[in-house]
Amino acid sequence: MAREMMYGDAIAAAIIEEMQRDPNVVLYGQNMAMTERDPMLKKFGKDRVRLAPISETAEIGIGIGAAMTGLRPIVELWMSEFLLVAFDQVINEAPKFHYMSGGQVKVPVVLKAGFGFCAGWAGQHSNCIYHTMMGIPGLKVVVPSTPADAKGLMTAAIRDDNPVVYLHPYMLTLDKGEVPEGEYVVPLGVADIKRAGTDVTLVAVGWMVKKAVAAAERLAEEGISAEVVDPRTLAPLDVKTIVESVKKTGRLVLVDQAPRHSSAAAVIAGEVAEHGFEYLRAPVKMVTALDTSVPYSEPMENYILPNENKIIQAVKSVMAHEAVAA
Questions:
Q1: DSSP letter at 39?
Q2: Which CATH number do you get for residue 40?
Q3: Is the pLDDT of residue 326 over 50?
Q4: Which of 10, 93, 226, 264, CA to CA, is 20 to 30 A from 74?
Q5: What is the reported pLDDT for 322?
Q6: Cα dihedral sign for 118, 188, 140, 192?
Q7: Looking at 125, 261, 275, 321, which residue is catalytic?
Q8: Of 153, 180, 207, at which residue does a domain stop?
Q9: Which candidate, 248, 51, 76, places its Cα nearest to that of 168?
């Protein structure tokens, strides 16, 4: 059975279900459990739901230490930029303990944060910093694009024995969709085809999946069949599914909210260049944000970000390439 839920509520549902299932799952962060009326605090008590100090270094350090003792902490960090304050622990401590201990130490911590708040929040809360983490050995990076995936990937992240950075696009928080009730797990490292197609592959990340699907529907009205692939996790990255889609369509457009030269799109383009070059009928096209900070001005914000029209133009460009070559 499934029921309609908002994206943010789907994440909360996964956390609640996992806390009910496993007493070792704990939740804490800033601006949490601040009063006795807090619903999570009332449900699970002060031992498992805690207010953290206003120190990301302390929050993440406590989470890593707690995970090493056998707990499964979920650290609510709110904004992905706050991870940067404690980045040494995120990329140089938590992911290394398992390797450096010869597999004896596990670090099952989830670092949960929103990102890409492009709604007038300007330069410091509108960023996409996942490229800085998706290549770190031992660290997993999750970016759900639908309410169902938000729930299933959070469940998988909590159960994983490795540190997981769970990034949720703030622009999807209120989006609604069908979400399976009860236990629901989406395996990490498995991409999903959100829309099947035969003419061109669109690989999109996070919020951009929604825009890619909308663009694909408009393209279908013009007779162009676009397949939309959502990696869902950037580390591990499901290269096989992406390459198989490119093998079928022969064309690839990458859509990423991050700036071009600090994007997941650039990494995916490199993987396809190595593993799927022979299948390409046209050059790979990247539709990304411009290489600039996100401005406060809404018209400027819209100017630098990908949108449906930019995706459609890119698709038509790769579709026309073969016609010209012929």
A1: H
A2: 3.40.50.970
A3: no
A4: 264
A5: 58
A6: negative
A7: 125
A8: 180
A9: 76
**Where is the domain boundary, 133, 160, 180?**
180
Q: How many residues does the chain have?
A: 326
How far is Cα 289 from Cα 310, in angstroms, rounded to an integer? 11
Tokens matching residue 310: 């930019």
- Domain CATH for 242: 3.40.50.920
Query: Which structural domain, as residue segments, surrounds residue 256?
Result: 192-325
Residue 185 near residue 10, CB atoms below 8 Å: no
Q: Which residues contact 100 (CB under 8 A, 6 or more apart)?
A: none
Cα dihedral value 158, 160, 163, 166, nearest 10: -50
Residue 263 pLDDT level (bands cut at 50, 70, 90): very high
The count of structural domains within the chain is: 2
Answer yes or no: is pLDDT of 268 > 60.
yes
Greatest alpha-carbon pair distance for the chain in Å reads 70
In the chain, what percentage of residues exceed pLDDT 70?
97
Q: Is residue 106 part of a domain?
A: yes
CA distances (Å), 27 to each of 16, 51, 162, 183, in order? 10, 9, 17, 19
Residue 125 designated active-site = yes
Helix, strand and coil in the chain, % to nearest 5: 45, 20, 35
Asked if residue 187 is part of any domain, the answer here is no
